[in-house]
Design brief:
271 residues; alpha/beta; Rossmann fold; Aspartate Aminotransferase, domain 1; four-stranded antiparallel β-sheet; globular; disordered N terminus
């Protein structure tokens, strides 16, 4: 029996996006790469409480089960944090810390810091820790190659002060430091990698013919920039973007993934 009161999920997506999903669903080997926070999961005050929307998780699990289809999460989170909040099967490819940490089809994480980098991480811990301790509701999240300075709960004045002082002190203390600005967070790393590099690495690893990538933050623009004409980039939420499609937020991303799973499921079985 057809529920006439509930429109099909594709009717709530922009028609050009529906058409692009139809096309990419037909690709022989597909890589579905996804940011987590703000894309699969709504933004929350406590990052460890973030969870993917149920519809998004269900669509990801369906895609993970399909042949000739790989799913990857590419996040600014440290890999251990990403593993906890995502809670996905082991065949999910994971990229954490903006491409610094990678877990492919092995439990081993590819990351080794040399002695100089370890000293730089210690120096960052000292200067950024002082900034976080001096301002209310500013806190430091350790990462394998650096730290994230979170200001989501801070006042606007404290947030501005934290960003200004942290930038100045980190640049003075560590030569060649990489600083990325996201939503209410500054990410400091002693290594320079991007989500664009992660896309290229995963494209080669999976031998994908096409890539679907969805993201919401400034750091996701590197991934959008790495996409080819046969790929699909989906921006979640407002802001300038290189993505060729945009939706309002995680709810619409979930609908797009569910439709992609519908389309892919039918097409893969015909290949």
């Amino acid at each position: 029996m057809v529920d006439v009161d509930t429109p099909p999920r594709f009717s709530r997506l922009p028609e050009p996006l529906v058409g692009a999903l139809r096309e990419i669903a037909r690709t022989q080997r597909l890589l579905v790469a996804l940011d987590f926070d703000g894309t699969l999961a709504p933004e929350v005050d406590d990052p460890e409480m973030a969870r993917a929307l149920p519809e998004a998780r269900a669509a990801v699990l369906r895609l993970l089960a399909m042949r000739s289809t790989r799913v990857a999460l590419i996040s600014g989170r440290a890999l251990k944090s990403l593993e906890r909040v995502a809670d996905l099967p082991d065949n999910t490819l994971l990229v954490g810390s903006h491409g610094i940490e990678i877990r492919l089809d092995s439990p081993d994480v590819q990351l080794t810091l040399d002695a100089t980098e370890l000293e730089q991480v210690d120096a960052l811990n000292s200067v950024l820790g002082e900034v976080a301790d001096s301002l209310d509701q500013v806190w430091l999240e350790p990462k394998p190659a650096g730290f994230a300075l979170h200001t989501r709960l801070a006042t606007e004045q404290n947030s501005r002060m934290a960003h200004l002082v942290a930038r100045r002190e980190a640049i003075a203390e560590v030569a060649g430091i990489t600083i990325r600005e996201g939503k209410n967070v500054l990410d400091f790393s002693v290594r320079s990698t991007t989500k664009g590099e992660a896309i290229e690495h995963l494209r080669q690893y999976t031998n994908a013919n096409s890539v679907f990538f969805a993201g919401d933050d400034v750091t996701d623009e590197d991934a959008f920039a790495a996409l080819n004409p046969d790929d699909v980039g989906l921006k979640s939420g407002p802001g300038a973007t290189l993505a060729n499609f945009r939706v309002a937020g995680p709810i619409q991303v979930a609908r797009a993934l569910a439709l992609l799973a519908d389309l892919r499921e039918g097409d893969v079985h015909e290949q």
